[in-house]
Every structure is written in C-alpha cells, then in structure tokens.
C-alpha cells in the first residue's frame, strides 16, 4: 500500500539534500586551460568565472585576438568540467533517495 506520509517525508529529505548540494556548488572549483597552459581560468560549480591567469608573454597588443580566443576556450573547458562536477554532486546528494529512473535529469535543479 502506498504510504503518502512516508513519501512526503522522503520528498522533504530530497529537497534538503538538493539545497545542500546547490550550496556546495559554490565551493567546487574547476579549471580549464588553453594554449598549452598559457591561459588558465577557474569557475565554481555554478559555472561562475572566479579567476583568470594569463601568461605575461601573451600580453602584447598584437596578440589580443589570440588571447581572446584562448580565454574563451579555457572558460568553456572549465564550464564543462564544472557541469560534470555539479552533476556528480547532485547524484551523490540524492543517492538512495530518488530511484534511478532512466531519463530523469535533475541537473536543472542545480541552480
């Protein structure tokens, strides 16, 4: 028989864990590099850019376009890694609480 009270209790626990996971995303760090490490960017688990490190040899006016391209590439790599980390965090946070339903994607709940 379906126990509605038990299900409601489970949902509250799931919500609490999701909130905790969302809060933890700000603490996660992912780094992306391009140009053989000449440009490094760091994003958090919410895919917010929090740091850029540029090799000083790239800071020449004639290298502006190359530098812009390298920054974009590094940011995209870091964002991809952060997305993967966020999905893993969500998976760990809800493990055992939400059944493994094929096609169920909770990544949209990650802020």
From TrEMBL:
Q: Which Gene3D superfamilies match?
A: Nucleoid-associated protein YbaB-like domain (3.30.1310.10)
- SUPFAM superfamilies from the xrefs? YbaB-like
Q: Could you confirm whether the keyword Coiled coil appears in this record?
A: yes
User: Could you list the residue ranges forming a coiled coil in this record?
Assistant: 4-31
**Subcellular locations according to the entry:** Cytoplasm, Nucleoid
Main localisation, per the record?
cytoplasm
Q: Any idea which UniProt keywords this protein has?
A: Coiled coil, Cytoplasm, DNA-binding
Q: Which Pfam families match?
A: YbaB_DNA_bd (PF02575)
Subunit info here reads: Homodimer.
Q: What does this protein do?
A: Binds to DNA and alters its conformation. May be involved in regulation of gene expression, nucleoid organization and DNA protection.
Family that this chain belongs to: Belongs to the YbaB/EbfC family.
Protein name as it appears in the record: Nucleoid-associated protein KK060_03680
Q: Which species expresses this protein natively?
A: Chryseosolibacter indicus
């Amino acid at each position: 028989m379906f126990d509605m009270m038990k299900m409601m209790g489970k949902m509250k626990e799931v919500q609490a864990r999701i909130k905790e996971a969302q809060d933890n995303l700000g603490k996660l760090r992912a780094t992306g590099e391009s140009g053989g490490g000449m440009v490094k960017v760091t994003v958090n688990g919410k895919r917010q850019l929090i740091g850029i490190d540029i090799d000083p040899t790239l800071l020449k006016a004639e290298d502006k376009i190359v530098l812009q391209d390298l920054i974009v590439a590094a940011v995209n790599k870091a964002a991809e890694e952060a997305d993967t980390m966020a999905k893993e965090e969500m998976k760990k946070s809800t493990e055992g609480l939400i059944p493994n339903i094929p096609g169920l994607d909770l990544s949209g709940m990650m802020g």
